[in-house]
Amino acid sequence: MRKFAFIIHPLRFDDFARKYPITQHLPPKLVEWAFKQVGPVMAGHVTGVQSKTGEELEGWLLGLPLTPEILLNAPYDWVLKKLMAATQLAEKLGAEIVGLGAFTKIAGDRGITLSQRVGIPVTTGNSYTTATAVAGALQATDRMQMDVRRITATVIGATGSIGRAATWLLAEKVRHLTLVSRTPSELEELANELRGEHPGLEVNWTTDIPAAVRPADLVVAVSSATGVIVEPEDLKPGAVVTDVARPRNLSRVVMERRNDVLVLDGGVIQVPGAQADMGFDFGFPPKMVEACMAETMILALEGRLECFTLGPTIQVDRVREIRELADKHGFSMAGFRRFERAIDDREIERILKAAQSASA
Question: 280 by DSSP, 3-state: which?
């Protein structure tokens, strides 16, 4: 049996109250200070996962009670000690590889230094996250009766780890691509690289999110912003939006106010094994996890005990490779979902009709 571990943390302050109800009556700063003194805790035990090859998998979810703001703003040496403690616990439990969840993969140098300080491989899971985000987005444009060769696609967070890889994959399919991030020099450099590799591709870039989103038929949101950055009024009728970011780049208000827009959760994966139990409530139905966790599980099952995805750059070849390994072991995209709820064909038909009506 193969074994893995995955490090998680609360995405919002409210998440503390889900585990420890008393915290909702205490000042937030006091709660955050108290939990900064706490080391990694056992959050869940993964059992019953079985590959199509017959290989079985066991895992542990290790929780760091740190919010995104703490992980991003605290000195990285301090954060690194927390991550090392979690990884060392994973080693003691017998894990052969450890994955970094949510903002633990963004802090510092995205796992590189951590991998050099511990005795087992580390992965961010961003290769499989990229693969499933782009594949799901393109499937959705087809379902919304778009010609992918004619659409305008916008990537928010285009110069980030996932965003950059996503732009290269989309550049192979679309003819109009808009890049968005905070740093003009990085955007211009990426745009020039894309134009050089794809001469027929029209590439624009901007730091203005609403301006980039308004004309877009497809939006892939992968920004590391800690708050909502896309509002309901920013979106074009009939647009497909895949929100890969956690915390989300889109508010639930978008779904409530815009019945003519298809908003999707990015990277939700169904795990193989009739008795698979994730041992933790991620807000998904049973046997479903985020793609970054699924990458760690896939690598363990394959026996690829290596630092598969680390640092600020994702190799597109690795994105394709992890998708092939996922198919081999029976991992699959969990259909279309938004805000942890499945979307059926009837709902997509309603969205399509509302978009057609709004555009008429």
Answer: coil
